Amino acid sequence: MSSEQENNNPTPKPGDMGAIPRPGGYDHFVLVADEGKVIHATSDTTASGSVIKKEPLEKVAAGGNFKVKNQDDKKIPLPVDTILSQANARVGEKVDYGPLTYNCETVASEMRYGKGQGHSEQAEKFKQSAAEKGESFLSHAKDTHNHFEGN
């Protein structure tokens, strides 16, 4: 695991959101806690669904690059002590996970910005891409149909 130290990627601090690239082109989002640990929504091996866990960043990153990825911060984050106390209180909580509705990014942003402030830019981009591909497919199908119908 490496924590990228570029100009645009500061050293992670408690209360920051972070992203770890995963195979398949998506990022797994976490909230930086303390003592090298992160809090995140992940699958629960003991039951169906997902659970919020606090685990070492090294384990969660599994050799991948970690980037600080706070959402634009146009929203004001909660105070760090509030972020951490509320996030720690959620450890062990079962969550109704949905990749396009309530995912790891939503959970991390909710912990950083407050209940009801959860947002997933990743899901929005996926939905936008799917909509564009659908429109492109429909346009192509219409053109093909018109070509064969002689229109």
UniProtKB/TrEMBL annotation:
Single Gene Ontology BP annotation: N-acylphosphatidylethanolamine metabolic process
Compositional bias (Polar residues): 1-10
Basic and acidic residues compositional bias, start-end: 121-151
GO cellular component: cytoplasm
InterPro entries: H-rev107_PLA/AT (IPR051496), LRAT_dom (IPR007053)
Keyword Transcription regulation listed: no
A molecular function (GO) term: phospholipase A2 activity
Signal peptide: none
Domain of life: Eukaryota
Record family assignment: Belongs to the H-rev107 family.
Name recorded for this polypeptide: Phospholipase A and acyltransferase 4-like
Record lineage: Eukaryota, Metazoa, Chordata, Craniata, Vertebrata
